[in-house]
Each structure stands twice: as structure tokens, then as C-alpha cells.
Amino acid sequence: MATPPPAAEIADTDVEVSLYEVRKKIHPRAVHGWFATWRWLFIFISQAVYYGLCWLPWNGRQAVLFDLVQRKFYIFGMVFWPQDVFFLAVLLIICALSLFLFTAIGGRLWCGFACPQTVYTEIFLWIERLIEGDRPARIRLDSAPLSAEKVGRRGAKHGVWLLFSLWTGFTFVGYFTPIKSLVAEVVSLSLGPWEMFWIAFYGMATYGNAGWLREQVCKYMCPYARFQGVMFDPDTLTVTYDGERGEPRGFRSRNVDRHAKGLGDCIDCGICVQVCPTGIDIRDGLQYECIGCSACIDGCNQVMDKMGYPRGLIRYTTQHALKEHWNWRQILRHIIRPRILIYSAILGMIIAAFLWGLGHKPGLRVDVIRDRATMAREVEDEQIENVFRLQVMNVSEKNQRYSLAVSGIEGIRIEGQNEIEVAATTTRSITVAVRAPEHSGHEGSNRIYFDVRSLNDANVAVHEKAIFIEP
Questions:
Q1: Could you tell me if residue 409 is inside a domain?
Q2: 56 within some domain
Q3: pLDDT tens per residue across span 276-293
Q4: Could you write out the DSSP letters of every residue in 307-349?
Q5: What digits encode the pLDDT tens for the residues 415-426?
Q6: GO MF annotations for this entry (predicted)?
């Protein structure tokens, strides 16, 4: 029987395994090229919309305003009420299907060009480069001992970051509190506690995510990175390194004949790693950390141009295209596949239904509630009276005057007021007495209908049912 080894020997063979990767600070290098231009174009457009839309006037109010206190959402000429939550649900479905479609076609295009985390990280990096310099200068500054210059540059950078973040939080709150009122409150130092909290919260979230966490959000916090694999297939366009052309890699001067030395096109310069915002090496294959920003494509193309080699060592392509050496016409022919057609058809139908619903959204809503505190009763002239509460919602942006009528039982009528005026985008509740001749209906519940029509627009009308009780 074998004798077990001493405890000391067992202890010597123990291996400590860390459950968390130690973060290595990434200093992305500035890169220029076709994809970088497109990325900055998307950044400019998205931020122009975000920071400018809340200042756009519309019919004497803010063009886009989510008034939570009054429970009304104003989006240009449309007013949405809590009853319109259906439109929000459909909009979220459209966004989800669009994400599935774009991912199946072109990979993580959203992440690389339009995701707020990517957008704000790029803006913060741009600020960092202006103050601290490009990659080599920032690395030197990190390793340099504490000095007045280091403190000054770091302080200036974080100061600009904080100001930009607070401006971002201020703009966010400006979509829920009228932006001009918010400015007046800031100037007069009379901000409410909730406005102050959300400006600080959203501002600090921007500062922390774009200034400190950066790639950690994409790699560990964003769920999209984890389930993107189920939306990819061999015909999905992704950022890909052409290993057949690039290997074996090796450094060489421009004048060296790479074929004579048995080398591929990759000169192992590491530019693709230096420009990557998540710090991965695309030459290791497709990785979930890749956000599809295409910075490595621009960086590699610059190196290929300097070496006199063809561009495209790193490029957007598909696994099948790389293996079969397809041209772009063949790639496009395989991109249009059944999966894409199904996604597109479903998405197109939902968008069409959504637009139709917006175009036919009623300008009037009426809720009829029978007053349970008042019993059905017999009044003068052998009439039966029921009392109802009508909640009339004018969801248009014009003052309206409505006529009230009732039908469903012979001789039924509204006693007293049969017209009502409702201001734009407001709700008015009125109590109406409805009378009908005795025995004109059957004993118990009788179905009746309220007709509310606009006197300003003949196309605006509501036919709402209710129950008339006859003792």
C-alpha cells in the first residue's frame, strides 16, 4: 500500500487561483481612417440630438418633454398619456428586433458606433488626449513620480470630465423638467431635491462609466457581450484577422521581401492592440470583448499603406468568406439569407403597424363611470334617472368644445348640460344625469351609449358604452 506524501509536500503543490482578473489599464492610441470618421460622425449626430433636442421649442412648449408630474409625454406634435403605454411596449419590441437584425448582419455595430458607453468613452478619451497627450505621453505620465505637472494635468482632465458629466446629467433632467425652468432654478440656486439628485446621479454615472470603468462595462457588465454568440453565424460580418494572409507574422523593414523570408503580411507591430479600446488582440480570433468599433482595421490599414501591402489584413468579413475566399458580391449574396428575411419581414410589419397606430391615435378619450353613490331612481314625469361621471381627455394640443349625447333606449336623454369645453392636453370630469321614460327599457341593466363629438373637428368623436339601471 502506497504511503501518502507528507503534508509539507502537498502544501508545496497548492496553486492559488484568482477568481478575478487584475485590471490592466488600457491607453488606446489615437487612430484615423474611414471607420474612425464614421464613428465620430455618429457621435456628433447622437450628441447634437441629445444636447440640442431639449432646447427645441414646439407650439409654445418644449418639443420633447416627459412630464411625469402631469403624466404626459410631449414628443413634437404628439401627446402621450399613461393609456398610451402600448406604444412604448411596441417601440421596445422594435428596438429589440432591430438589434437582432443588425447583429445578425453586421455583428456588434451598435456597440462600436452608437452605444452610449462607447460614445462617452470616446469623448472622454478625446479630452484626455487633449490634456495629457497621445498614448506614449499618457503612459509616461502614469509612470512618472508625483509632481506639480502631473497633478495639474490630472486635475484639469478630471475637472473637465466632471463639468461635462454634470452638463450631461443636467440635460437628462431637462427632458423631465422644462429645460428653461431648470436653468432658472440653477441660476437662482433653488433646485429641488429630486432635480439635484438626478443631475448628480446621472452625471456621476457618466463620469464613472466613461472615465474610470470604460472597457470594464463592455466586458463584464453589459449582457449583450454574453448573448451575442447566439445571434452570430458563419455569414455574419465581423471584424476579422486574415490569418492565412498574415501568418507567419514577423517584424521586418519595408524593403525586405516578405515572400523570400517566408513571412506573411503581418509585421507584428501591435498597432491593432494599441488602438483597441478593450485591449484585445484581434489576431487571436473573434472574442466576446470585441465591440466591433473597427479601430484595428483603420490602424492596420495605415501600417499596410506604409509597408506598401494591400489593405484588408484586418477587415469586415464573414467566416465563410474568409474560408472560401469570396468577393464582396458573394458575401452580400450570402448575407441575404432566410434568417435575415424573416427578421426584416417581422420588423417591417411591426414598424408599419406602429406608424399606422401613431397616425390614427385618437385626439379624444372618454371614460364613463356610473356613479355608484347615487342609486337609480324615479323622478318627476315618470322618468328613471341614473347619474354618470364622464372623464373627457382632450389629447390634442388645441382647445376643444364637445357635444354630449346618449342613445340606446327610446327617449333617453341627458338632463341639463350637453356641451363641455376642455383645454388642450387636459382632462375634465363632469357629472351628468341621464333620464329615460319608465319601462322604456327592460328591468335591470340596459346597454346605452355616450356620444362625445368635437364641435371644432367633425372627425373627432367617441362612442362609449355604459349601463343604465332601471329598477
A1: yes
A2: yes
A3: 999 999 999 988 899 999
A4: HTPPS-SEEEE-HHHHHHT--HHHHHHHHS-HHHHHHHHHHHH
A5: 888 899 999 888
A6: 4 iron, 4 sulfur cluster binding; metal ion binding
Pick from 127, 210, 218: nearest CA to 169 = 210
How many domains are contained in the chain?
3
Question: DSSP letters along 409-448, please?
Answer: STT-EEES--EEEE-TTEEEEEEEEEEEETTSS-SEEEEE
**Same-domain check for residues 280 and 377:** no
Last residue of a domain, one of 285, 318, 351: 318
In the numeric block, which cell numbers belong to residue 31? 487612430
Residue 77 lies in a domain: yes
- Reduce the DSSP state of residue 403 to 3 states and report it: strand
Residue 187's pLDDT band, with cuts at 50, 70 and 90, is very high
Integer Rg of the chain from CA: 33
**Cβ neighbours around 78 below 10 Å, total:** 14
CA 9 → CA 2, 13, 17, distances in Å? 15, 7, 19
Q: And the C-alpha cell for 443?
A: 328591468
Query: Which domain CATH number covers 427?
Result: 2.60.40.10
Cβ(448)–Cβ(409) below 8 Å:
yes
Give the bridge partners for 66, in sequence order: 73
Q: Is residue 335 part of a domain?
A: no
Contact 182, 173 (CB under 8 A): yes
Which set of grid coordinates corresponds to residue 212? 474610470
Cα–Cα distances in angstroms (integers) from residue 393 to residues 271, 389, 428, 430, 450, in the given order: 62, 13, 7, 11, 14
Instruction: Say if residue 248 is preceded by a cis peptide, omega within 30 of 0.
Output: yes
The answer for 11, left when phi > 0, alpha when psi is -120 to 50, beta otherwise, is alpha
